[in-house]
Amino acid sequence: MADRSATGRRTSPEPHLRLVRPEDRVRPTRDAAAAVRRNLALLIVPTLLLTVIGLVMVLSAGSISAIEGYDNSFWYFNRQSLYAVAGLVVLVVAARVPHTVWRRAAIPALVAVVPLMLLTLHPSIGSSLYGAARWIDLGPITLQPAELAKPFVLFAAAAIVTRPWKDVTRGRELLLPLGPIVAVVAGVVLLQRDLGTTLIICGSVFLLLFVAGARPRHLFVAALGGALVTAYFIFGTAYRRTRLMESWLRWELDPSGAGWQLQQGLIALGSGGWFGVGLGNSRQKWEYLPNAHSDFVFAILGEELGLAGALFVLALFGALLYAGIRIAVSAPDPFGRLLAAGVTGWIGLQTIVNLGAVTGLLPITGVPLPFLSFGGTALVVTLGGVGVVASVALAGLRTGRRRVERRRTRRPATAGAGRPSR
After folding, report:
1. In angstroms, how far is CA 19 from the centroid of its own chain?
2. Cα separation of 238 and 322, whole Å?
3. Cα angle: 5, vertex 9, 11; to 5 degrees
4. Contact indicator for 342, 204 with CB cutoff of 8 Å
Protein backbone atom coordinates (compact mmCIF):
# COMPACT_ATOMS: atom_id res chain seq x y z
CA MET A 1 0.00 0.00 0.00
CA ALA A 2 1.19 3.49 -0.76
CA ASP A 3 2.34 5.69 2.07
CA ARG A 4 0.20 8.61 3.28
CA SER A 5 1.48 12.07 4.01
CA ALA A 6 0.69 14.14 7.09
CA THR A 7 -2.34 15.62 5.31
CA GLY A 8 -3.79 12.17 4.68
CA ARG A 9 -3.23 12.19 0.91
CA ARG A 10 -1.61 9.26 -0.78
CA THR A 11 1.96 9.72 -1.90
CA SER A 12 3.24 8.33 -5.15
CA PRO A 13 4.64 4.79 -5.02
CA GLU A 14 8.35 4.24 -5.42
CA PRO A 15 8.96 3.82 -9.16
CA HIS A 16 11.36 1.22 -10.46
CA LEU A 17 12.87 3.85 -12.77
CA ARG A 18 13.53 6.79 -10.48
CA LEU A 19 13.48 10.40 -11.51
CA VAL A 20 16.63 12.45 -11.10
CA ARG A 21 16.59 14.26 -7.77
CA PRO A 22 15.41 17.88 -7.97
CA GLU A 23 18.71 19.22 -6.68
CA ASP A 24 20.48 17.34 -9.47
CA ARG A 25 18.04 18.56 -12.12
CA VAL A 26 18.58 22.20 -11.21
CA ARG A 27 22.16 22.32 -12.30
CA PRO A 28 23.73 25.19 -14.17
CA THR A 29 22.12 25.61 -17.55
CA ARG A 30 25.37 24.87 -19.38
CA ASP A 31 25.76 21.44 -17.75
CA ALA A 32 22.10 20.57 -18.28
CA ALA A 33 22.24 21.61 -21.94
CA ALA A 34 25.33 19.50 -22.50
CA ALA A 35 23.66 16.46 -20.95
CA VAL A 36 20.54 16.93 -23.07
CA ARG A 37 22.64 17.31 -26.22
CA ARG A 38 24.46 14.06 -25.46
CA ASN A 39 21.20 12.21 -24.86
CA LEU A 40 19.61 13.63 -28.00
CA ALA A 41 22.66 12.77 -30.10
CA LEU A 42 22.64 9.25 -28.70
CA LEU A 43 18.95 9.02 -29.62
CA ILE A 44 18.79 10.75 -33.01
CA VAL A 45 22.03 9.56 -34.64
CA PRO A 46 21.24 5.82 -34.31
CA THR A 47 17.68 6.53 -35.44
CA LEU A 48 18.86 8.23 -38.62
CA LEU A 49 21.47 5.57 -39.32
CA LEU A 50 18.97 2.75 -38.83
CA THR A 51 16.50 4.50 -41.14
CA VAL A 52 19.14 4.89 -43.87
CA ILE A 53 20.27 1.27 -43.45
CA GLY A 54 16.63 0.22 -43.64
CA LEU A 55 16.17 2.03 -46.95
CA VAL A 56 19.29 0.38 -48.39
CA MET A 57 18.20 -3.08 -47.24
CA VAL A 58 14.63 -2.62 -48.53
CA LEU A 59 16.10 -1.75 -51.92
CA SER A 60 18.44 -4.75 -51.86
CA ALA A 61 16.15 -7.36 -50.31
CA GLY A 62 12.99 -6.28 -52.15
CA SER A 63 14.35 -5.63 -55.62
CA ILE A 64 13.62 -9.11 -56.98
CA SER A 65 10.08 -9.42 -55.63
CA ALA A 66 9.39 -5.81 -56.67
CA ILE A 67 10.39 -6.37 -60.28
CA GLU A 68 8.32 -9.55 -60.43
CA GLY A 69 5.25 -8.03 -58.78
CA TYR A 70 5.36 -4.44 -60.04
CA ASP A 71 7.85 -4.53 -62.96
CA ASN A 72 10.01 -2.01 -61.09
CA SER A 73 12.88 -3.07 -58.87
CA PHE A 74 12.73 0.28 -57.03
CA TRP A 75 9.03 0.03 -56.14
CA TYR A 76 9.46 -0.89 -52.46
CA PHE A 77 12.37 1.51 -52.08
CA ASN A 78 10.48 4.45 -53.57
CA ARG A 79 7.49 3.96 -51.27
CA GLN A 80 9.66 3.44 -48.21
CA SER A 81 11.64 6.58 -49.04
CA LEU A 82 8.46 8.66 -49.10
CA TYR A 83 7.40 7.22 -45.76
CA ALA A 84 10.87 7.88 -44.34
CA VAL A 85 10.64 11.56 -45.29
CA ALA A 86 7.16 11.78 -43.77
CA GLY A 87 8.40 10.02 -40.65
CA LEU A 88 11.29 12.44 -40.20
CA VAL A 89 8.86 15.35 -40.48
CA VAL A 90 6.67 13.71 -37.82
CA LEU A 91 9.76 13.19 -35.64
CA VAL A 92 10.69 16.88 -35.79
CA VAL A 93 7.11 18.02 -35.10
CA ALA A 94 6.70 15.57 -32.21
CA ALA A 95 9.99 16.72 -30.71
CA ARG A 96 8.82 20.35 -30.72
CA VAL A 97 5.35 19.63 -29.31
CA PRO A 98 5.35 19.66 -25.47
CA HIS A 99 5.02 16.10 -24.23
CA THR A 100 2.25 17.14 -21.82
CA VAL A 101 -0.07 17.49 -24.83
CA TRP A 102 -0.32 13.70 -25.02
CA ARG A 103 -1.82 13.54 -21.54
CA ARG A 104 -5.01 15.12 -22.91
CA ALA A 105 -4.83 13.80 -26.46
CA ALA A 106 -4.19 10.09 -25.79
CA ILE A 107 -7.76 8.97 -25.04
CA PRO A 108 -9.39 10.97 -27.89
CA ALA A 109 -6.76 9.59 -30.26
CA LEU A 110 -7.57 6.03 -29.20
CA VAL A 111 -11.28 6.71 -29.66
CA ALA A 112 -10.48 7.71 -33.25
CA VAL A 113 -8.10 4.82 -33.95
CA VAL A 114 -10.34 1.97 -32.78
CA PRO A 115 -13.01 2.60 -35.48
CA LEU A 116 -10.22 2.72 -38.06
CA MET A 117 -9.06 -0.70 -36.91
CA LEU A 118 -12.61 -2.00 -37.23
CA LEU A 119 -12.78 -0.69 -40.79
CA THR A 120 -10.00 -3.10 -41.79
CA LEU A 121 -12.48 -5.94 -41.16
CA HIS A 122 -14.85 -4.63 -43.84
CA PRO A 123 -14.25 -6.61 -47.06
CA SER A 124 -14.67 -3.58 -49.34
CA ILE A 125 -12.40 -1.29 -47.28
CA GLY A 126 -9.75 -3.42 -45.63
CA SER A 127 -7.16 -5.57 -47.36
CA SER A 128 -5.81 -8.89 -46.15
CA LEU A 129 -2.47 -10.64 -46.44
CA TYR A 130 -1.62 -14.11 -45.12
CA GLY A 131 -5.06 -14.28 -43.53
CA ALA A 132 -4.66 -11.06 -41.50
CA ALA A 133 -6.89 -8.03 -42.19
CA ARG A 134 -4.63 -5.18 -41.09
CA TRP A 135 -4.61 -2.52 -43.81
CA ILE A 136 -6.83 0.16 -45.33
CA ASP A 137 -6.13 1.05 -48.94
CA LEU A 138 -6.15 4.82 -49.51
CA GLY A 139 -5.18 4.94 -53.15
CA PRO A 140 -1.42 5.54 -53.38
CA ILE A 141 -0.83 4.79 -49.70
CA THR A 142 -1.80 2.02 -47.30
CA LEU A 143 -2.69 2.65 -43.64
CA GLN A 144 -2.23 0.12 -40.84
CA PRO A 145 -4.29 1.47 -37.91
CA ALA A 146 -2.93 -1.08 -35.42
CA GLU A 147 0.47 0.62 -35.67
CA LEU A 148 -1.13 3.88 -34.56
CA ALA A 149 -2.64 2.12 -31.56
CA LYS A 150 0.79 1.15 -30.18
CA PRO A 151 1.92 4.63 -29.04
CA PHE A 152 -1.56 5.90 -28.17
CA VAL A 153 -2.19 3.00 -25.79
CA LEU A 154 1.12 3.80 -24.07
CA PHE A 155 0.27 7.51 -23.88
CA ALA A 156 -3.13 6.69 -22.38
CA ALA A 157 -1.56 4.30 -19.86
CA ALA A 158 1.00 6.92 -18.80
CA ALA A 159 -1.75 9.54 -18.41
CA ILE A 160 -3.94 7.23 -16.32
CA VAL A 161 -1.17 5.92 -14.06
CA THR A 162 0.19 9.39 -13.26
CA ARG A 163 -3.11 10.89 -12.15
CA PRO A 164 -2.68 12.48 -8.69
CA TRP A 165 -5.27 10.24 -7.06
CA LYS A 166 -3.97 7.03 -8.62
CA ASP A 167 -2.27 4.43 -6.43
CA VAL A 168 -0.63 1.86 -8.71
CA THR A 169 0.13 -0.41 -5.77
CA ARG A 170 -3.61 -1.18 -5.45
CA GLY A 171 -4.79 -3.84 -7.88
CA ARG A 172 -8.23 -2.32 -8.41
CA GLU A 173 -6.90 1.14 -9.21
CA LEU A 174 -4.26 -0.38 -11.47
CA LEU A 175 -6.89 -2.33 -13.39
CA LEU A 176 -9.49 0.42 -13.82
CA PRO A 177 -9.82 2.01 -16.28
CA LEU A 178 -6.55 0.90 -17.90
CA GLY A 179 -7.48 -2.79 -18.10
CA PRO A 180 -10.66 -2.34 -20.17
CA ILE A 181 -8.92 0.13 -22.51
CA VAL A 182 -6.08 -2.28 -23.27
CA ALA A 183 -8.53 -5.19 -23.55
CA VAL A 184 -10.66 -3.36 -26.14
CA VAL A 185 -7.66 -2.40 -28.28
CA ALA A 186 -6.12 -5.86 -28.01
CA GLY A 187 -9.46 -7.49 -28.79
CA VAL A 188 -9.88 -5.47 -31.99
CA VAL A 189 -6.33 -6.33 -33.06
CA LEU A 190 -7.09 -10.00 -32.43
CA LEU A 191 -10.13 -9.70 -34.68
CA GLN A 192 -7.66 -8.65 -37.36
CA ARG A 193 -5.88 -11.98 -36.73
CA ASP A 194 -2.73 -10.16 -35.67
CA LEU A 195 -1.50 -11.86 -32.52
CA GLY A 196 2.02 -10.41 -32.85
CA THR A 197 0.86 -6.78 -32.62
CA THR A 198 -1.40 -7.72 -29.71
CA LEU A 199 1.57 -9.11 -27.80
CA ILE A 200 3.62 -5.99 -28.53
CA ILE A 201 0.85 -3.69 -27.23
CA CYS A 202 0.21 -5.70 -24.07
CA GLY A 203 3.91 -6.28 -23.43
CA SER A 204 4.70 -2.57 -23.78
CA VAL A 205 1.98 -1.65 -21.29
CA PHE A 206 3.36 -4.32 -18.93
CA LEU A 207 6.83 -2.73 -19.09
CA LEU A 208 5.34 0.72 -18.50
CA LEU A 209 3.54 -0.52 -15.37
CA PHE A 210 6.77 -2.05 -14.11
CA VAL A 211 8.50 1.31 -14.48
CA ALA A 212 5.55 3.04 -12.79
CA GLY A 213 6.11 0.97 -9.65
CA ALA A 214 3.33 -1.63 -9.79
CA ARG A 215 3.57 -4.42 -7.23
CA PRO A 216 5.42 -7.56 -8.42
CA ARG A 217 2.50 -9.81 -7.49
CA HIS A 218 0.13 -7.76 -9.63
CA LEU A 219 2.57 -7.91 -12.52
CA PHE A 220 2.93 -11.66 -12.02
CA VAL A 221 -0.83 -12.17 -12.14
CA ALA A 222 -1.04 -10.02 -15.28
CA ALA A 223 1.80 -11.96 -16.93
CA LEU A 224 0.23 -15.30 -16.01
CA GLY A 225 -3.17 -14.23 -17.32
CA GLY A 226 -1.61 -12.95 -20.53
CA ALA A 227 0.28 -16.21 -21.02
CA LEU A 228 -2.91 -18.26 -20.58
CA VAL A 229 -4.84 -16.08 -23.03
CA THR A 230 -1.98 -16.28 -25.54
CA ALA A 231 -1.85 -20.06 -25.22
CA TYR A 232 -5.60 -20.24 -25.82
CA PHE A 233 -5.38 -18.23 -29.04
CA ILE A 234 -2.34 -20.20 -30.24
CA PHE A 235 -3.57 -23.73 -29.58
CA GLY A 236 -7.20 -22.88 -30.32
CA THR A 237 -6.42 -21.84 -33.91
CA ALA A 238 -5.12 -24.32 -36.44
CA TYR A 239 -2.75 -22.08 -38.39
CA ARG A 240 -1.22 -20.59 -35.21
CA ARG A 241 -0.78 -24.06 -33.75
CA THR A 242 0.91 -25.19 -36.96
CA ARG A 243 3.15 -22.13 -36.94
CA LEU A 244 4.25 -22.86 -33.37
CA MET A 245 4.67 -26.63 -33.55
CA GLU A 246 5.85 -27.19 -37.12
CA SER A 247 7.31 -23.82 -38.17
CA TRP A 248 9.31 -23.23 -34.99
CA LEU A 249 9.67 -26.15 -32.58
CA ARG A 250 10.06 -28.84 -35.28
CA TRP A 251 10.86 -26.88 -38.41
CA GLU A 252 13.60 -29.31 -39.44
CA LEU A 253 11.00 -32.12 -39.83
CA ASP A 254 9.28 -30.24 -42.66
CA PRO A 255 11.99 -28.04 -44.22
CA SER A 256 10.19 -27.75 -47.56
CA GLY A 257 6.82 -26.89 -46.02
CA ALA A 258 6.02 -25.24 -42.69
CA GLY A 259 9.69 -24.82 -41.78
CA TRP A 260 10.72 -23.31 -45.13
CA GLN A 261 10.87 -19.64 -44.07
CA LEU A 262 12.89 -20.21 -40.92
CA GLN A 263 15.24 -22.59 -42.70
CA GLN A 264 15.92 -20.11 -45.51
CA GLY A 265 16.41 -17.30 -42.98
CA LEU A 266 19.00 -19.34 -41.09
CA ILE A 267 20.73 -20.21 -44.36
CA ALA A 268 20.92 -16.51 -45.17
CA LEU A 269 22.43 -15.67 -41.79
CA GLY A 270 24.88 -18.56 -41.97
CA SER A 271 25.98 -17.68 -45.51
CA GLY A 272 27.11 -14.21 -44.51
CA GLY A 273 30.20 -15.23 -42.57
CA TRP A 274 32.18 -12.45 -40.95
CA PHE A 275 31.78 -9.74 -43.58
CA GLY A 276 28.99 -10.98 -45.85
CA VAL A 277 28.71 -11.81 -49.53
CA GLY A 278 28.49 -8.13 -50.49
CA LEU A 279 25.71 -5.57 -50.60
CA GLY A 280 23.14 -6.59 -53.21
CA ASN A 281 24.62 -10.08 -53.70
CA SER A 282 22.18 -12.04 -51.57
CA ARG A 283 21.08 -15.38 -52.97
CA GLN A 284 18.16 -15.92 -50.62
CA LYS A 285 16.28 -12.84 -51.87
CA TRP A 286 15.79 -14.58 -55.22
CA GLU A 287 12.41 -15.89 -54.06
CA TYR A 288 13.94 -18.40 -51.67
CA LEU A 289 13.19 -16.45 -48.49
CA PRO A 290 9.56 -15.22 -48.13
CA ASN A 291 9.11 -11.65 -46.84
CA ALA A 292 12.78 -10.91 -47.38
CA HIS A 293 12.16 -7.15 -47.44
CA SER A 294 9.80 -7.01 -44.45
CA ASP A 295 9.80 -9.44 -41.52
CA PHE A 296 13.06 -11.19 -42.47
CA VAL A 297 15.07 -8.20 -43.65
CA PHE A 298 17.63 -8.82 -40.90
CA ALA A 299 18.43 -12.23 -42.42
CA ILE A 300 19.28 -10.59 -45.75
CA LEU A 301 21.32 -7.95 -43.89
CA GLY A 302 23.29 -10.69 -42.16
CA GLU A 303 23.87 -12.47 -45.47
CA GLU A 304 25.06 -9.38 -47.35
CA LEU A 305 26.92 -7.55 -44.56
CA GLY A 306 27.93 -10.52 -42.43
CA LEU A 307 28.34 -10.73 -38.69
CA ALA A 308 30.12 -7.37 -38.63
CA GLY A 309 27.14 -5.59 -40.22
CA ALA A 310 24.65 -7.39 -38.00
CA LEU A 311 26.57 -6.46 -34.84
CA PHE A 312 26.78 -2.85 -36.01
CA VAL A 313 23.00 -2.71 -36.39
CA LEU A 314 22.53 -4.30 -32.97
CA ALA A 315 24.90 -1.71 -31.49
CA LEU A 316 22.78 1.06 -33.02
CA PHE A 317 19.65 -0.40 -31.44
CA GLY A 318 21.49 -0.69 -28.12
CA ALA A 319 22.59 2.95 -28.26
CA LEU A 320 19.06 4.10 -29.08
CA LEU A 321 17.54 2.14 -26.20
CA TYR A 322 20.24 3.34 -23.81
CA ALA A 323 19.48 6.93 -24.78
CA GLY A 324 15.77 6.35 -24.18
CA ILE A 325 16.49 5.04 -20.69
CA ARG A 326 18.74 8.01 -19.88
CA ILE A 327 16.07 10.43 -21.05
CA ALA A 328 13.43 8.64 -18.98
CA VAL A 329 15.59 8.78 -15.85
CA SER A 330 16.21 12.52 -16.25
CA ALA A 331 12.60 13.37 -17.23
CA PRO A 332 11.17 16.50 -15.56
CA ASP A 333 7.94 14.82 -14.39
CA PRO A 334 6.46 11.32 -13.88
CA PHE A 335 4.34 11.52 -17.03
CA GLY A 336 7.40 12.32 -19.14
CA ARG A 337 9.31 9.50 -17.47
CA LEU A 338 6.61 6.98 -18.38
CA LEU A 339 6.31 8.34 -21.93
CA ALA A 340 10.03 7.93 -22.60
CA ALA A 341 10.20 4.56 -20.85
CA GLY A 342 7.07 3.29 -22.61
CA VAL A 343 8.24 4.21 -26.11
CA THR A 344 11.72 2.81 -25.39
CA GLY A 345 10.21 -0.43 -24.09
CA TRP A 346 7.93 -0.72 -27.13
CA ILE A 347 10.81 -0.32 -29.63
CA GLY A 348 13.06 -2.64 -27.64
CA LEU A 349 10.40 -5.33 -27.24
CA GLN A 350 9.48 -5.26 -30.93
CA THR A 351 13.15 -5.51 -31.88
CA ILE A 352 13.65 -8.55 -29.64
CA VAL A 353 10.52 -10.30 -30.98
CA ASN A 354 11.54 -9.79 -34.61
CA LEU A 355 15.17 -10.79 -34.13
CA GLY A 356 14.08 -13.78 -32.07
CA ALA A 357 11.86 -14.95 -34.93
CA VAL A 358 14.58 -14.48 -37.57
CA THR A 359 17.16 -16.41 -35.54
CA GLY A 360 14.73 -19.14 -34.51
CA LEU A 361 14.78 -18.29 -30.81
CA LEU A 362 11.11 -17.20 -30.85
CA PRO A 363 8.10 -18.16 -32.98
CA ILE A 364 7.44 -16.23 -36.18
CA THR A 365 4.76 -13.61 -35.42
CA GLY A 366 4.94 -11.25 -38.40
CA VAL A 367 6.23 -8.36 -36.30
CA PRO A 368 8.42 -5.96 -38.36
CA LEU A 369 11.88 -4.87 -37.32
CA PRO A 370 11.74 -1.17 -36.33
CA PHE A 371 13.27 1.22 -38.90
CA LEU A 372 14.49 -1.59 -41.18
CA SER A 373 11.48 -3.62 -42.33
CA PHE A 374 9.33 -2.44 -45.21
CA GLY A 375 6.14 -0.84 -43.91
CA GLY A 376 5.14 2.79 -44.20
CA THR A 377 2.82 3.20 -41.23
CA ALA A 378 5.20 1.34 -38.92
CA LEU A 379 8.14 3.52 -39.97
CA VAL A 380 6.27 6.82 -39.59
CA VAL A 381 4.81 5.85 -36.20
CA THR A 382 8.14 4.60 -34.85
CA LEU A 383 9.93 7.79 -35.91
CA GLY A 384 7.13 9.77 -34.27
CA GLY A 385 7.68 7.80 -31.07
CA VAL A 386 11.36 8.77 -31.13
CA GLY A 387 10.24 12.38 -31.52
CA VAL A 388 8.11 12.09 -28.38
CA VAL A 389 11.13 10.81 -26.43
CA ALA A 390 13.14 13.76 -27.76
CA SER A 391 10.42 16.15 -26.59
CA VAL A 392 10.73 14.73 -23.06
CA ALA A 393 14.47 15.43 -23.14
CA LEU A 394 13.93 18.98 -24.36
CA ALA A 395 11.28 19.54 -21.68
CA GLY A 396 13.83 18.67 -19.02
CA LEU A 397 16.18 21.29 -20.43
CA ARG A 398 13.45 23.96 -20.50
CA THR A 399 12.43 23.14 -16.94
CA GLY A 400 16.01 23.47 -15.71
CA ARG A 401 16.44 26.82 -17.44
CA ARG A 402 13.24 28.22 -15.94
CA ARG A 403 14.29 27.19 -12.45
CA VAL A 404 17.72 28.74 -12.84
CA GLU A 405 16.15 31.96 -14.12
CA ARG A 406 13.74 32.08 -11.18
CA ARG A 407 16.62 31.64 -8.76
CA ARG A 408 18.58 34.42 -10.40
CA THR A 409 15.64 36.82 -10.30
CA ARG A 410 14.95 36.10 -6.64
CA ARG A 411 18.50 36.54 -5.35
CA PRO A 412 18.87 40.34 -5.92
CA ALA A 413 15.55 41.07 -4.27
CA THR A 414 16.42 38.87 -1.30
CA ALA A 415 19.89 40.33 -0.97
CA GLY A 416 18.70 43.94 -0.96
CA ALA A 417 15.66 43.46 1.25
CA GLY A 418 17.53 43.93 4.54
CA ARG A 419 19.65 46.94 3.50
CA PRO A 420 18.65 50.28 5.08
CA SER A 421 17.71 52.99 2.63
CA ARG A 422 19.92 56.09 2.47
Report:
1. 21
2. 40
3. 65
4. yes
Q: Taking 70 as the threshold, does the pLDDT of residue 13 lie above it?
A: no
Interval 236-278: pLDDT, tens: 777 777 777 777 777 676 666 777 888 899 999 999 999 999 9
Q: Is 333 helix (H, G, I), strand (E, B) or coil?
A: coil
Q: What gap in Å lies between CA 293 and CA 265, rounded to an integer?
A: 12
pLDDT of residue 413 exceeding 60: no
Alpha-carbon 283 to chain mean position: 31
The C-alpha atoms of residue 350 and residue 54 are separated, in whole angstroms, by: 16
Taking the C-alpha atoms of residue 94 and residue 350, their distance in angstroms, rounded to an integer, is 21
Residue 247 confidence (pLDDT): 72
- Mean predicted confidence (pLDDT) in 62-74: 89
Whole-prediction pTM: 0.87
